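We close this part of the discussion by returning to an individual protein. The encoding preserves chain order, so positions in sequence and tokens coincide. The sequence in question and its structure tokens are set out directly beneath this paragraph:

===
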Amino acid sequence: MTGPWVKLELDVAAFDASRFETYVTRCRADGIRLTTFADLGDTPEHRRALYELNKECSADIPERGEFFSFEEYVERRFEADGYDPRGIVIALDGDDWIGLAATSVQKGFVFNEMTGVRAGYRGRGISIAMKTFGMAFVREHGASTVRTFHHPANANAIAMNRRMGFVDGEG
């Protein structure tokens, strides 16, 4: 990787959800359903579907390299201390999994680990809708801060987070 990671954080109390609800409303009007991994069911089939979606969406991350094997993914995602299936938002178009926003619980904050949308669905505000929908999970945990980080060349993800109110932080 070249250059430092861009570390961002969001003050949950300052987040104006009403400003971004239009993204959620637009998704629903377009037939996109937002739900959580918990509501879908943390099943072996759903774990595989999440893996495939995460793998596809991660392919565009600059200098990402080869994605984890499924076994490594299970260990890093589902067996990690901060895992909570309620913290993974899934966007669905019919039965097709088209986007995810995965958030884990850490000591003193929540961490947005990955937000991604399949290429054919990008540019429609689905990422912002998923992250807005996922703020219910953040508030449920009483977290005051959401942290994330990005490769410096991942300009779209950085811009989207800044639009939502993320500022430079400790990450």
